[in-house]
Amino acid sequence: MTPVIEVEDLVKQYKKTKTPAVDGVSFTVQEGEFFAFLGQNGAGKTTTISILTTTLAKTSGTVRIAGFDIDRQAREVREAIGLIFQRPSLDRTMTAEQNIRFHAAMYGLYPYRPSFRLMPADYRDRVTRLADIVGIGDGLFKAVAKLSGGMARKLEIVRSLVHTPRVLFLDEPTQGMDALARRNLWDYIDSMRRELGTTVFLTTHYIDEAEGTDTVCLIDRGRIALCCPPAEMKATMGAATLDDAYVAYLRSRPGLDATTLGEVLVESGVRR
Amino acid sequence: MSALTPTTALLAEPARRPTWWRELNAVVAVTARDVTLALRTPGMIALSLLMPIVMMGLIGGNLMENMAGGLPFDFGQFMLVGMIVNMLVMTTTMSMTSLIDDSDSDFSSEMLVAPVSRYAIVVGKILGSSFTALITAVGVIAVGLVMGLTLSLHAALGLLALAPLMCLSGGALAVIVMGSIKSKKAANLVVMLITMPQMFLSGVIIPIGSSTGVLFVLSRILPMTYCVDLARAVVTAGTPEYDSVVLFNPAISLLAIAGLTVVCLVIGTWLYARSERER
Ligand SMILES: Nc1ncnc2c1ncn2[C@@H]1O[C@H](COP(=O)(O)OP(=O)(O)OP(=O)(O)O)[C@@H](O)[C@H]1O
Ligand SMILES: [Mg+2]
To answer: For atom 9 of ligand 1, which residue has the closest CA?
Structure first.
């Protein structure tokens, strides 16, 4: 097995903050692995992904993606990855297709031409099929500002799949998407993994989406709390589903054993 | 929506091209985005045509009528050429504030995560910003015509050929300041703070042959000084006016513009990439 994501002692402290958002995280993801990175709001998932994808500078530690150092070989890293950001990163004034075309050109897949019709047939075919899979077919030529929230999300997914990355980072990819589109997306990602051996790094709050992963890592207040296959986690917690196991774990973990709303409010400082 | 058929869904990815091709393609894509954006907001284009009327028609006209007596050269043409260059550089600088819009809409993440050099992104942004600049420059020529100021065809073509380089030099300077500013308000203020003094320091409407001290130094490090001078050299080439309006040898000007642009690009791109990553 070849490690494709190697993280060692990663620390990130944002400017003007007192405590690090990511506090000494280490883990390894193998080539072709389906890896879930779970944790509560503010646990440090997006911060970690941003560093791994070269969009955020780390404070310390070492990270290698596909064998390349994220600082010294940033371009090679970028070449190897695909990314769906948690926060929408579309140009809202351009049409959906223009956003995709821009992306395809930035990744050197097709020569940029000023209209869809002038783009190579191969491009048009690819975009149409991907748009079909997530179901944005008729929204393709609308300005992003005029798409619904879920449609815009689907568009970001199509965009990130236009090039076929070795490592795919998905930061809450399915937020706001309808059930059918979610199912189609996961089927597609499964086929990418099977046929191309794509490594998938997923964060999500829909824990059932992590049910089929090879490894689940829990990050808790910037630290890795647990890393194991989902089956092991379920067995340990004596739960039937990963979702149950995850919640059971959170309730049992040291420092936050509140189970009622009142206790939670006290714990989190909302109520005294 | 079609059901998923994996083998057909996974289209073979087209072969990636050589690096230089990809860099160029990225520049084109970034530029095209800003041009598309400009074309989609006709209000902005209308506004950018108003600028020449104010700058050239009102300010320039006023100077011509009240200040231009007893000069050894044709002040009207002196100012026309200066204004053309000024509008090119000034409008490019203003349009570069779109870097902050990109940052606000998180579209900058989409650009910066792409496997292209940061220079391709920055140069694309500058060239995209130059589009509106070219329109305003044409506006200046039109207003000049109305005021009875004309350019010969070969002078106009010469200026057109130099326009991209002039915009690039102005845009590169803009990246240095804009690259690290996060608020649009601050950026607009900074644009004012650069473009206004620059207009006087680089000799757009007032000759700078007698500047000394700080003003001398500032004028000599601004790329626009050389742009204005080069433009005047192109327009007055072969006429007796040449010696009274041109300060530098055109080759020196060209070299200075190129050199200063490269320096500004290197510093500006570094600052921009850093400010987007350091949070
Ligand atoms: N730009 C920033 N400046 C300062 N602090 C930040 C910044 N971005 C995030 N943080 C802080 O870092 C911590 C981790 O945030 P992060 O976005 O990584 O969480 P997350 O696990 O992705 O949460 P969520 O599930 O809500 O997306 C939080 O405490 C957050 O407030
Ligand atoms: Mg997050």
So the answer is: A47
For residue A146, the model assigns a pLDDT of 93
Q: Which ligand is nearest to the CA of A47?
A: 1
Domain A3-268: which topology? Rossmann fold (3.40.50)
pTM of the model: 0.90
Residue B152 parent element (H or E): none
What average pLDDT does this structure show over A8-13?
A: 96
CA nearest to A135 within chain B: B1
Q: Is residue B261 within 8 Å of residue B223, measured between CB atoms?
A: yes
End-to-end Cα distance, chain A: 51
Q: Determine the residue type at B96.
A: M
Nearest to A108 among B7, B16, B105 (CB): B16
Q: Where are the domains of chain A?
A: 3-268
- Residue contact A53–B32, C-beta within 8 A: no
Convert the pLDDT of each residue in B21-30 to its tens digit: 999 999 999 9
C-alpha of residue A266 to centroid of ligand 2, in Å: 24
Distance (Å, whole) CA B174 – CA B169:
9
Taking only the tens place, the pLDDT of each residue in A196-243 is 899 999 999 999 999 999 999 999 999 999 899 999 999 988 889 999
ipTM for the assembly: 0.88
Å from CA of B235 to ligand 2 middle: 58
Which of A81, A70, A17, A65 lies closest to A44 in space, CA to CA? A17
